From TrEMBL:
Cofactor(s), names only, from the UniProt record: Zn(2+)
Cofactor note: Binds 1 zinc ion per subunit.
Organism in which the protein naturally occurs: Hellea balneolensis
GO terms under cellular component: cytoplasm
Record: residues binding Zn(2+): H315, H319, E338
Protein name stated in the entry: Aminopeptidase N
Primary localization class, coarse: cytoplasm
Domain of life: Bacteria
Annotated ranges, domain Peptidase M1 membrane alanine aminopeptidase: 266-448
Entry's Gene Ontology BP terms: proteolysis
Gene Ontology MF term list: alanyl aminopeptidase activity; metallopeptidase activity; zinc ion binding
Length: 522
């Protein structure tokens, strides 16, 4: 029985529970608690990086120019996030076109949030230049020795800035509530290629690499990689970057990515980021993938030769709509990124690989979700809207955000009908394109554009049970897979002693069928 289902001895109704759980919309619900930045007073708009990549010292050094605009007439201090950055100077750009020294202060050091960089500014100043260098222990940067790469000849650098690690790479307003454009110049050792989550502008005559991101993105999507990296195009705007030893295999493994993109675009509107490339990182990359815009980071463990693990690419590509295009404004709202993306992934899997495969993925998703719900430290960590007292925003990334979020959207699809819900999602992505929103923003849009247009399909009590209630509500979709039913039948015969291990018919099992089997071993 799921925690959200009242037991026979529980005299509190589901309606009472969810009405009590649903908080009133307030400014607190819409604030990011993991940033020092005063982004509601002063808003950063553009970042310009000019950096040297030093593999010997394992640091980035140079400058960050920040464009900003006051949102309140009396705003006179720009507050930025930093973590283990060494600040050497701050300058302001005057109306006369000159850079002049500015006062600044570093204060309020915290092991999670880092240190606030406070810069008082005068009226008319809307740009500052900060000279700094990173720490060899920067949380968002991974420095690899040549021995940690396949060929063992060159070092490698890659970043992983989600959730709040961009502040260890540059001083900025490190919150998903703020979206910025950026450009960058990187100087790297000869023979190495630099990449970023941006339009690749190439090298100049000095060997420096140049980048430009014209669409506004949250800071956690700023990404960098430097190493012995080659490129192979798949089509005119899709390709693979990788170390030479694995490039051809990677290009084959992910050659169907353009067709996946077409399926997503048919459902949810056009891909809006121009290029879609994938970078295969060294094995030490700690995730399956990371949805950096224009340049998805992927683990080499996905390259198995039979394309059986390309669902990770489907997931990261889906973030081009949910997460990158429409972003959670706080990490408490991480389900807006991951739940929507997991739903889109499953829908596109059904469109490209068939309902049989999509059904299997739903069953496996439910298995993982129930496990995470059982193991949650407290009931609030099984809400879709995460509690405000998380020690670190990384705690928001359990399968609750991914799979409970997906099953909530499937509940809405089942109630409103697929065609109606598809049209709603497409309008949602259009309406909030290149914006950051909270759960409450989504609910406001949902009520105005779905509930009120199609009354009687769902109640807010049912919706609140998903958003602000623990565990799985009784309205959850009942998942089933015919393929897994056949696996279960064999498993039952084996565990009851009716057949031996040698008699298990596994020759044609997929990766998903093996996962189902292994998850249910006694």
């Amino acid at each position: 029985m799921s925690p959200a289902t009242p037991t026979p001895t529980d005299k509190t109704s589901l309606k009472d529970k969810t009405m009590a759980a649903a908080p009133k919309t307030s400014q607190t619900d819409r604030m990011d608690h993991y940033t020092y930045s005063n982004y509601n007073d002063v808003r950063m708009t553009h970042l310009s990086l000019d950096l040297d990549v030093d593999f010997d010292k394992k640091i980035l050094s140079g400058s960050a120019i920040i464009d900003f605009k006051p949102l309140k007439a009396n705003a006179h201090i720009l507050k930025l996030d930093t973590h283990d950055l060494e600040i050497s100077s701050v300058q302001g750009y005057t109306r006369d076109g000159a850079w002049v020294a500015m006062d600044y202060a570093l204060r309020d050091k915290d092991p999670v949030k880092g240190t606030m960089l406070s810069i008082p500014f005068s009226k008319g100043t809307h740009k500052v230049r900060i000279h700094y260098k990173t720490s060899p222990k920067a949380g968002g940067l991974q420095w690899l020795e040549p021995s940690q790469t396949k060929d063992g000849k060159f070092p490698y650098l890659f970043s992983q800035n989600q959730t709040i690690f961009a502040r260890s790479m540059a001083p900025l307003q490190d919150t998903p509530a703020v979206r910025i454009t950026y450009d960058a110049t990187l100087r790297v050792p000869k023979g190495l290629r630099a990449l970023m989550s941006a339009k690749q502008l190439g090298q100049d005559e000095t060997g420096a690499w140049h980048f430009e991101m014209p669409q506004p993105i949250p800071s956690y999507l700023i990404a960098i990689a430097v190493g012995e990296i080659d490129y192979k195009p798949i089509d005119e705007h899709t390709g693979v970057y990788a170390e030479p030893y694995i490039l051809e295999k990677a290009a084959y493994e992910f050659e169907d990515t353009p067709e996946t993109e077409k399926a997503m675009s048919a459902l949810y509107g056009p891909y809006r980021w121009g290029q879609y490339d994938m970078l295969i990182l060294p094995p030490s990359f700690p995730f399956g993938g990371m949805e950096n815009p224009r340049l998805t980071f992927l683990t080499p463990t996905l390259i198995v030769g039979d394309k059986s693990l390309v669902d990770v690419v489907t997931h990261e590509l889906a973030h081009s709509w949910s997460g990158n295009l429409v972003t959670n404004a706080t990490w408490r709202d991480s389900w807006l990124n991951e739940g929507f993306t997991t739903y889109v992934e499953n829908r596109v899997t059904e469109a490209t690989e068939g309902k049989r495969r999509a059904d299997m993925e739903q069953v496996l998703a439910m298995d993982g979700l129930k496990r995470d719900i059982r193991e949650a430290k407290k009931p609030e960590m099984t809400w879709l809207k995460m509690p405000a007292d998380m020690h670190h925003p990384d705690e928001a990334f359990s399968l609750v955000a991914y799979n409970k979020g997906m099953f909530f959207l499937m509940f809405l699809e089942d109630r409103f009908g697929r065609d109606t819900f598809d049209a709603f999602l497409k309008s949602y992505f259009d309406h909030f394109a290149f914006k950051s929103i909270t759960t409450e923003d989504f609910l406001d849009y949902f009520k105005a554009n779905l509930m009120e247009k199609y009354p009687g399909k769902v109640t807010m009590e049912e919706v609140n049970a998903w958003i602000y209630g623990p565990g799985l509500p009784p309205t959850v979709r009942k998942v089933h897979s015919d393929a897994f039913a056949a696996v279960q039948a064999q498993l039952d015969k084996w565990t009851s002693g009716k057949i031996s291990v040698a008699q298990l018919d596994t020759a044609k099992w997929t990766t998903q069928e093996w996962l189902y089997f292994l998850n249910r071993l006694p």
